Amino acid sequence: MNNIQFKNTSIAYTDTGKGTAIVLLHGFLENQKMWDNYVAPFTKKNRVITIDLLGHGDTECLGYVHTMEDNADAVHAVLAELRIRKAILVGHSMGGYVALAFAELYPENIKGLVLLNSTAKADSDERKTNRDRAIKAVKQSYIGFVSLAVANLFSENNRERLVEEIENTKKEALKTPLQAIVASLEGMKIRADREVLLHLTPYQKMLVLGKKDPILDYEETKAQITNTEVEFVTFPDGHMSYIENQEELTKILLQFFKKI
Ligand code: MLT
C-alpha cells in the first residue's frame, strides 16, 4: 500500500502490473479490498490502480462533505503522481459517481468507463430525503446503521447463501469512521446529474446492473442509456455484482479491457 498527500490528506492506493492503466474505485462503506479477487486476473495484461476514496480504508477524511469532485481530484492526484496520462475507470456505485465527476473534470485523462451498479443520474428528491434520514440514523446508532446498510446491498435471495461474504463486507464497512459516512452521504446527495456524459463522450462505456438491486431501480437506471452507445450488462442479483456474480463479471470486464 502506498500513499500521497493531497490537500493535507493522506490518500492510500496500490499500483500493480504493466500496460494500459485500469483504476478501480470502490463504493460507499467499501475500500480497495473489495477488488482483492480482481487484481490478479486484471494485472495479467494491465496496470491496476486501486484507491481508497476520501474517509474510506486507509485514506483520511478531507472535511465534513466529501463531494464527488473532491474524490475525483484525489484520484487525479494519484494518477499525476504515477504519471499516468490515460486510464480506464471502473467505479462501483459511489465509485461510479466519482468516475463520472473525473470524466467531466479530466476528459483528456480517460480512456474507458465502467459504471458498476451505479448511475449517472443525480439523487431524486426522495433519495435526498433518505440521505438525511441516513445521516440521522448513523449518528444515533453507528453499528445498527452500518449492519443494515450492508445487508441491504445484497439481493434478498442471496442473504443466506452469502452469509460469510456479508459478514466480511460488514467488517470492512465498520472501519469507515462516522465522519466519513456522513461526509459521503452529504457528497452523494449534492452530486450533479451527469447523464449527458453517457451521450457525448467518445470513449467506450459500459453499465452493469443487477436486476434485483435493492438500491438502484433497474428499469429506471437502464433507461438512461437509451439512444447511447453504452454497452449494457445485466446480472440477476443485487447491488454487489462483484461478489454475487464474481466469475461472470471478471470475464466481462476482461473482455471490455481487451477492446480498448
Ligand atoms: C454505494 O453503494 O456506493 C452507495 O450505496 C450508493 C448510493 O447510496 O447511492
Care to describe what's here?
- The chain has 260 residues and is α/β, with parallel strands linked by helices.
- It has one domain: 3-Layer(aba) Sandwich (Rossmann fold).
- The chain has eleven helices and eight strands.
- The protein has helices spanning 36-42, 68-81, 94-105, 125-140, 142-151, 163-173, 178-189, 195-200, 218-223, 241-244, 246-259, and strands at residues 2-6, 9-16, 21-25, 47-51, 87-92, 110-116, 204-210, 231-235.
- Strands 1-2-4-3-5-6-7-8 form an eight-stranded mixed beta sheet.
- Strand 1 (2-6) and strand 2 form a beta hairpin.
- Helix 4 packs across helix 5 and helix 5 packs across helix 6 (163-173).
- The longest helix is centred in the middle third of the chain and has 16 residues, at 125-140.
- It is globular and about 45 Å long.
- The two termini are 27 Å apart.
- D-malate is lined by residues 27-28, 93-94, 188, 215.
Summed up, the domain count is 1
Structural class category: alpha/beta
Which kinds of small molecule does this entry bind, naming each only once?
D-malate
Query: What level of helicity do the residues show?
Result: 40-55%
CATH architecture classification name: 3-Layer(aba) Sandwich
Oligomer: single chain
Number of helices: 11
CATH class: Alpha Beta
Overall pLDDT level = 98
String of helices and strands: EEEHEHEHEHHHHHEHEHH
Shape: globular
CATH topology name: Rossmann fold
Number of strands: 8
End-to-end distance: 27 Å
Question: So, the CATH homologous superfamily?
Answer: Alpha/Beta hydrolase fold, catalytic domain
Keywords: Hydrolase
GO molecular function, one term: hydrolase activity
Domain AB hydrolase-1: 21-245
Protein name: Alpha/beta hydrolase
